[in-house]
Specification:
This protein has a domain of 149 residues. Helix content is 77%, strand content 1%. The protein is built from twelve helices and two strands; from the N terminus they run H-H-H-H-H-H-H-E-E-H-H-H-H-H. The protein is globular and about 80 Å long. The chain starts with a helix and ends in a 24-residue tail after the last helix. 26% of the residues are buried.
Amino acid sequence: MAANKCTKIFLRIISIVLMLLFLAATIIGIIATVNMKGFAAFGVGVIIFGVLGLGVSVCGFLGAAYNPREKGKYTFCIVLFFIVMMVLCIVFVILGIACICIKPTIEWIMTQSKDQIVKIFSGISKADLADVNKFVKTIITSVTTVGVVCCVIGGVIFFVLIVTSFHMGYQLFFKFFIAAGSIVMFVVGIVIAGLSGFLVASGTKFSTVTIGTPVFVVVIVVGALLLLWGLFGLISACCGHKSRCLLFIYLIGVIILFIAFLAVGIVGIAAQTAVFKVLDNMCSGDNQKTCLEMQVALQENLCGLIKDDAEKAKCMSNVTFSTIIKYMKDMLGGWLSIVVAIAFIIVIFLFLVMISACMACKQKPQARDDLSAPMPDYRQHRDVAY
């Protein structure tokens, strides 16, 4: 009881803090919509986010009163709060890891000419690129800061999830984790498939390196599978009380996804060595001209503003094909790290879904109506005199 009381107090404090934060976001959105004409759409988005967040915070505050002994009371509130927090935790952690691991890709911009950098960042002009090195360092600092903040927020939300899980109790946790996990898979599937589809449609290209459409097609397929299996999981969670067949099928699919993403993570780790070996010879043959252009651009961006002739000559002599290859290795290594991190996050998540599905499969199927209940035996009263 003491532990339940502690989690109740903690959840209410967290809910109040979240209410204040989302209320502040709503007010900022209103101010942006009214006073900043160019940011009206952004302001409306922030208002919607703030209002929805306020609703979830209220659910968390009410859900803190949940008691496992009082079935049905405040169950919806605590479950909804848990689902939203879980989605936000995964989103913030993945976003934080991506921002940190994308640093080598931003540094790789140094190997591009100013004309090509303007094409990559459509909102800037050559006048903004007087000092490309400073420009890139500013972006790296901003992105790294965002990444660290997102990871910290994700860690705090994860702690809130642990406390919420203890407050819910393991029975409710496993009972609703299938539905919660399916919703998360559905949302993540939409994000992965939608973002990859957008990048394919926009023809994403970095200088002479075009992001391969087949790679994105594979990612879109993976996102679609997560989306569809999340939808099937919701159906299983709703109808699994009548038949365990749906739960068994869902469990088999989750096991297949678990093995697939585990394989992706392992292959991603092993692929780095193979990719680096290929990149060792990237500046030979037909690619030599491309590497030479990148070398000239890097020399100009790193050494162009150095006034001392000796220092400038030394700087330019240090930029060789090996430097270009190192930039490429760091960039691709960063992307592979993102893939590996996301794969293992999904593996951990799917492992919890597997446990929940196994727990649900152990339970006997029940019918929600009373038609399946055994009829009372009135024969035992036949000799009773009234």
